[in-house]
Structure formats: structure tokens, C-alpha cells
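Researcher: I'd like a candidate sequence for this fold, 84 residues long. If you have to choose between options at a position, lean toward the conservative one.
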């Protein structure tokens, strides 16, 4: 299966950033890219991670703790709201 790549121009448009900002993120290691010839390309499968649409384990844990606390404190109220 052929992996899809995005050019820096395409990625910049998707992220609503300038091409220079994308290059800086590549150079700093914030975005993983491969250099083909004189141009950088980013795997399309990395787009959710790059755009911040994925959660790491610490973020997931924080959300789980918050949900547990909310249900513990407001469980009865949530049940009543669910019946409406």
C-alpha cells in the first residue's frame, strides 16, 4: 500500500499556518517529515497528531478522572436530567 504524503504547502493550508511556520516546526522536530530532493513531505496519517486531534495518555487520564469526579458529585442530578 502506498503511503500518502502531504507537501509543506498542503500541510500549511490544512493547519492554517504559513509555509515558514511549518518549516520551523519540521526543523525543531515538532513535525516528523521526510526530505525528498529539496522538499519536505509529511505522512498524511500523522495529520491528526500534528493538528492536536489525538490525546496522549496523560490527557486521557485527566479526562477519565474528571468524568469520574463529576459522576460521583452530580450523579443523581445527571440521572434526573437524563430522564427529561
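Model: Candidate sequence:
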Amino acid at each position: 500500500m502506498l503511503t500518502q504524503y502531504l507537501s509543506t504547502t498542503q500541510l500549511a493550508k490544512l493547519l492554517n499556518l504559513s509555509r515558514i511556520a511549518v518549516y520551523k516546526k519540521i526543523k525543531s522536530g515538532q513535525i516528523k517529515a521526510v526530505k525528498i530532493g529539496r522538499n519536505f513531505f509529511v505522512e498524511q496519517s500523522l495529520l491528526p497528531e500534528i493538528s492536536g486531534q489525538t490525546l496522549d495518555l496523560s490527557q486521557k487520564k485527566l479526562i477519565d478522572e474528571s468524568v469520574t469526579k463529576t459522576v460521583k458529585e452530580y450523579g443523581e442530578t445527571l440521572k434526573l436530567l437524563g430522564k427529561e
